[in-house]
Design brief:
There is one protein chain. The protein is mostly helical and 214 residues long. Helix content is 75%, strand content 0%. Helix 2 packs parallel to helix 4, helix 2 crosses helix 7 and helix 3 packs antiparallel against helix 6. It binds fe (ii) ion (FE2) (2 copies).
């Protein structure tokens, strides 16, 4: 059978499908077991439950951004291998997205109402990174993963200590993000200038602050 060629309309439909599934529906995961499943749901105080739900809402929004970034980068990637790298990265992040969503449900929390805006903004940033070239784009992925790893480390300290299922999920995500950074570096990621890293940190601080509240 011949290889299918995608028209511009096909691509636009696929982009819209991914965006809608990520923000409003259920994404295609790799079906990795949710790390929280192995742990009995604890009985948390109202304050602890609220704090956990807010932190997991931030992490859920972070995974929405990861989906959009990597899909944007895949769209404008210059080589097939980097395009595949980005799509694989997005698919792996889908498990994280689903695990965060599961925690939000268990904690009676809700998703951020800002997720559609995060998706659109992150997709545009990802597409721009892809246009800059494959090595800068991989560098952007590596730096994103490193910053997310640091952020998750902080969340492990902020989460109520009795919320063991959330701790387990965050710990697994942190290990995965570290692996994602290493694989981008192995694929030829360029080290980004400090000004770009600082801008990324400021942008993600705005996102985390806003998602924590709404
Ligand atoms: Fe992730
Ligand atoms: Fe990651």
């Amino acid at each position: 059978m011949g290889k299918r060629t995608f028209t511009t309309l096909d691509v636009l439909c696929l982009i819209a499908d991914d965006a809608l599934a990520t923000v409003f529906g259920h994404t295609r995961t790799r079906d990795r077991e949710d790390p929280a499943k192995a742990i009995k749901e604890p009985s948390l105080s109202f304050e602890d439950k609220l704090q956990s739900a807010k932190l997991m809402r931030v992490n859920h929004s972070g995974e929405v951004c990861a989906q959009a970034l990597y899909r944007g980068q895949a769209l404008t990637a210059q080589s097939v291998s980097v395009k595949k790298h980005m799509i694989k990265a997005a698919r792996e992040e889908n498990d994280h997205l689903q695990w965060c969503e599961n925690r939000l449900e268990a904690l009676d929390g809700r998703k951020s109402i800002l997720n559609p805006a995060w998706y659109v903004g992150s997709f545009a940033i990802g597409a721009f990174a892809g246009i800059l070239g494959d090595r800068p784009s991989l560098g952007f992925l590596a730096e994103t993963e490193r910053q997310v790893e640091t952020h998750l480390e902080k969340h492990l300290e902020l989460l109520p200590k009795d919320d063991l299922p959330s701790h387990r999920v965050i710990k697994q995500m942190k290990d995965d993000e570290k692996r994602h950074a290493t694989s981008a570096i192995d694929a030829g990621a360029l080290e980004l200038p400090n000004i770009v890293k600082t801008t990324m940190r400021i942008t993600s601080a705005i996102m985390t602050g806003a998602s924590y509240r709404i």
